[in-house]
Specification:
Helix content: under 10%
Shape: globular
Order of helices and strands: EEEHEEEEEEEEEEHEE
Largest sheet: 6 strands, antiparallel
CATH class: Mainly Beta
Structural class: mainly beta
Number of domains: 1
Number of helices: 2
Radius of gyration: 17 Å
Distance between the termini: 53 Å
Length: about 190
């Protein structure tokens, strides 16, 4: 950037489908085969097409990972579907810097933000277009699509927060979000 130069942002966000474009955008996909161990019904999981797309994540990391005082921006798209009676969901994580918070907001579809504290108390918040969610430090979080269209959720988090997927991979959440009588329920 030069002094007094007027330039465009390196990233554009389509406000209709929340897709980002630009060289610095990171695109990740998660297929069912990438989610082994997060669904309780292993038999149903094994019978499904392991190449089926479960969710995608786009991120813009304008500063180096771990930089204090910076912010990252992203959007997750969780596809509709179930493994047995469990909804398609993200892996879930705590932050490596456990006192770091995060914001999520609903853009499209309907779902649940499943939250768990360090004492393994688990609860969920409904996600829908316009819902805004503050995820405090020391809280694990994951998204589940409870609808029949894509669930799109925006996110903003500190660039030094990091992600601890391991604790959830080993211990899971203390409750499952399942469909009972056509409605989501924590059990």
């Amino acid at each position: 950037m030069k002094h007094l130069e007027i330039c465009k942002s390196p990233v554009e966000l389509n406000l209709k489908n929340y897709q980002m474009k630009g060289d610095p955008v990171i695109n990740q996909t998660r297929k069912l085969k990438d989610l082994k161990g997060i669904f309780q019904d292993q038999e149903a999981f094994d019978q499904m097409d392991q190449e089926q797309l479960a969710y995608t994540v786009q991120s813009w990391l304008p500063v180096a990972d771990g930089t204090p005082g910076g912010l990252f921006f992203g959007a997750s798209t969780i596809y509709p579907g179930k493994v047995g009676n469990e909804y398609f969901m993200t892996k879930g994580h705590f932050h490596s810097q456990s006192d770091r918070a995060e914001f999520y907001w609903g853009v499209q579809g309907k779902g649940m933000l499943v939250l768990m504290d360090r004492n393994r108390n688990t609860w969920a918040e409904e996600v829908y277009p316009g819902s805004l969610h503050y995820i405090g430090g020391e809280i694990a979080h994951r998204l589940a699509n409870t609808g029949d269209e894509k669930l799109i959720v925006g996110a903003c988090w500190p660039s030094d927060a990091g992600h601890d997927y391991e604790e959830i991979a080993v211990n899971g959440f203390s409750a499952l979000l399942v469909e009972v009588d056509g409605k989501p329920k924590l059990v």
